[in-house]
Amino acid sequence: MHTMTHESKEPPKPRRHAVTLHDIAKAAGVSVATASFVANGKRDVRLTDETRERVQRVIDELGYRPNAMAKNLVSGGSKFIGLVADAIATTPFAGQIIHGAQDEAWKHGYVLLVANTEGNEPAEREAITMMLEHQVRGILYSTWFHRAADVPEALRETDFVMVNCFSPSLDSRAVVPDEVQGGRTATDMLLAEGHRRVAFINTTAIAPARVGRLEGYQAALAAAGIDFDPALVLDAQPDQEGGFDAVESILRLGVNAVFCHNDRVAMGLYDGLRARGLAIPDDIAIVGFDNQEVISAHLRPPLSTVQLPHYELGAAGVRMLLGIDEAAPDELRRIACPPVARQSTSAPRPVQP
Question: Residues in domain HTH lacI-type (predicted)?
Fold first, then answer.
């Protein structure tokens, strides 16, 4: 019998990670953008000779090799646009902002590079650094729900537009849903059917949607000559359970129409009213918000609602970034939320003598 012997070998040495522009910038005490300019030989940028020499020394010492694709893009600028999102690909509106941005980018000869960071700050920094290394034309920075968001420092090293979020200091360009207009539109859908006593189930979550949709509700009532009654505004968790739990309060108010903060709340309200033998819209008309189609289009009757313009937010962000739509450096642009009429609203039944 032949026995095979194996010569002992030393364990392989761990591979050292590739040197990145982030490493160069940190070692040289400069920004990632400055490191990129020196590494890629960009001469049309104002840098002192001392800075160029310091960065170049670090590049030589660490053995950095510029990305081949990035080097090819130095002369004319890249045809990439970055999109950094916190959890956008896993939301019920999966991909709508990305889809809108991608379509608009393609229309103007650009390719969209997408990073979904799940809210992880180190991953976010790495994503932005990678995009800077690829010399993207600029970056869209997006969140999965409309809110104020701090601007990562690395983002300020390139052109950027915030999408579905905005800087608390209002010092950056941003595109967001028009929550006030959306709230007014939702309320108008009920008023247009002749309803005069309209309740609003708002959310307990602190967000622009809570304040804006309430303001829109009040504006619609005022325009119709109806006095605002704070007793008709309820707070609820922004989900199906919140809508279900609000049913008793809605019935005590004696209203014939309800504007719900979102479609999930409306779905819970449907469940609670049906459990009490009430019909929609014959007994109570309902309007939601979001147009989360997996809910709104498949309820019985289908839910009238107002659409969050996620696709248009992505497209508008690209247009603003490319300068197609001019904007001030600190502009907060609001995108209209259109109505989606279905069968959950109707005129009130005439009162029997």
Answer: 19-75
pLDDT at 247 over 90: yes
Residue percentage of the chain with pLDDT more than 70: 86
Task: Supply 29's token pair.
Answer: 């005490």
Q: Is residue 243 within 8 Å of residue 301, measured between CB atoms?
A: no
Rounded Cα distance between 313 and 22, Å, is: 30
Q: Is the pLDDT of residue 353 over 80?
A: no
Q: Would you mind telling me the total number of residues written for the chain in this entry?
A: 353
| Rounded average pLDDT over 110-126 | 86
What does pTM read for this prediction? 0.77
Closest to 240 measured CA to CA, from 292, 197, 189: 292
Q: CATH 3.40.50.2300 in the chain: give the residue spans.
A: 80-178+310-336, 179-308
Q: For strand 160-166 and strand 174-177, is the pairing parallel, antiparallel, or unpaired?
A: parallel
Give per-residue pLDDT as tens, 320-332: 999 999 888 889 9
Instruction: List 161's β-bridge partners, or say none.
Output: 140
Rg (C-alpha) for the chain, rounded Å, is 27
Whole-number Å distance between alpha carbons of 63 and 149: 37
Q: Which CATH superfamily is domain 21-73 in?
A: lambda repressor-like DNA-binding domains (1.10.260.40)
**Measured CA angle at 70 (ends 64, 75), to 5 deg:** 120
pLDDT at 112 over 70: yes
Report which of 194, 144, 177, 142 is spatially closest to residue 289, judged by C-alpha positions.
Answer: 177
What's the CATH architecture for 179-308? 3-Layer(aba) Sandwich (3.40)
Q: Are 163 and 98 in contact (CB under 8 A)?
A: no
Maximum CA extent, the chain: 108
CATH topology of domain 80-178+310-336: Rossmann fold (3.40.50)
Q: Range(s) for CATH 1.10.260.40 in the chain?
A: 21-73
Helices 21-28, 32-39: inter-axial angle, 10-degree rounding: 110
How many Å apart are CA 293 and CA 178, to the nearest integer?
A: 20
